[in-house]
Amino acid sequence: MNLSIVIPLLNEEASLEELFSRINHVCQSNDLTYEIWFVDDGSTDLSWNIIENLKVQYPQIRAIKFSRNYGKSQALHAAFERANGEVVITMDADLQDFPEEIPELYQMIVEDNYDIVSGWKKKRFDNVMTKNVPSKLFNAAARKVSGVYLHDFNCGLKAYKKQVVKSIDVYGDMHRYIPVLAANAGFRRITEKEVQHQARPYGSSKFGTERFIRGFLDLVTLWFVSRFGGRPMHFFGAVGTLMFIVGFLSALWLGISKLIDVSKGIYGHLITNNPWFYIALTMMIMGTLLFVAGFLGEMIIRTNREHKNYNIDEII
Ligand code: UDP
Ligand code: MG
């Protein structure tokens, strides 16, 4: 099978039929064999009924229904696990993305041998203040932190080699950063393609402006996990040890200068009157805590035997 098309959806009853018929048409006229994975992420409207009806006529439809709303990342993950196509394409269900882009995305993966082709909504049709401007900042930060040079991380329309979606673990709200997850897993042939975009014809957006705050926190997590996730001691241990040593040397110095004073017969200077005493104390305590945090991190990694540290390209 050439293609698995993965479509997460939450209350998108109005667009599903048109979406399916456009996908079906474009795939058939380009001789692409395909399956569609609809993932109903806890819709409360008629979305699931519409999918069931379509399924009766079109066996190339597969669908998963979540018992409640788990989120877009979980929806993608559930379909990624089950996808059979050689190329996996994700798209939103709201018709903001154009199914007509599918053949070209497919070509780029198969012929130009890219691991990921990410859509770039160069000309965007969303609200300027609540989406376009914050999203520019957000993408700039993501580029800087991840070293993956895409203009539009969060575009719903993306194409992947099958192996990519099988190797990454999309959890939490990480659907925004799939290219970064993939790059961290060793898939480096990532590019983007300008895609068409239109305003939402039906329904309303499922994400508010809180997406940017969450997005930034996830970015920090991602950066941190990719750098130190496999070896927490290198961060916590190093910072902790350093703090402890500075604290300990300060305390030592306080003690020695006290002894010198005493040997000279000066008794008035109490160590506890010196601000350095408190600084030294705090640094020793915090240093120890950080060290212990790093140590516990290492222990957790050691216990978690399922932890997959590497993807192998080839063994000869
Ligand atoms: N979606 C989902 N689960 C959610 C939120 C959204 O499956 O919890 C789907 C939604 O139905 C749509 C896609 O994810 O197909 C993108 O959502 P939306 O269009 O609301 O995002 P935006 O285009 O505003 O970024
Ligand atoms: Mg949308």
TrEMBL record:
Note the coiled coil stretches, chain numbering.
none
Q: What does the UniProt keyword field contain?
A: Cell membrane, Glycosyltransferase, Lipopolysaccharide biosynthesis, Membrane, Transferase, Transmembrane, Transmembrane helix
Question: Which InterPro entries does this entry report, sorted A to Z?
Answer: Glyco_trans_2-like (IPR001173), Glycosyltransferase_2 (IPR050256), Nucleotide-diphossugar_trans (IPR029044)
Which SUPFAM superfamilies has this protein been placed in?
Answer: Nucleotide-diphospho-sugar transferases (SSF53448)
Any single Gene Ontology cellular-component annotation: plasma membrane
Q: Does the keyword Zinc-finger apply?
A: no
User: Which Pfam families does this chain map to?
Assistant: Glycos_transf_2
What is an example of a GO molecular function annotated in this UniProt entry?
A: undecaprenyl-phosphate 4-deoxy-4-formamido-L-arabinose transferase activity
The record places domain Glycosyltransferase 2-like at 4-167
Q: Name one GO biological process term.
A: lipopolysaccharide biosynthetic process
Q: Where are the transmembrane segments?
A: 235-256, 276-301
Q: Does the keyword Membrane apply?
A: yes
Q: What class of enzyme is it?
A: transferase
Q: Which CDD domains match?
A: DPM1_like_bac
Q: What is its EC number?
A: 2.4.1.-
Name the PANTHER family on file. Answer: UNDECAPRENYL-PHOSPHATE 4-DEOXY-4-FORMAMIDO-L-ARABINOSE TRANSFERASE (PTHR48090:SF3), UNDECAPRENYL-PHOSPHATE 4-DEOXY-4-FORMAMIDO-L-ARABINOSE TRANSFERASE-RELATED (PTHR48090)
Q: What protein does this entry describe? A: Dodecaprenyl-phosphate galacturonate synthase
Source organism of this protein record: Chryseobacterium fistulae
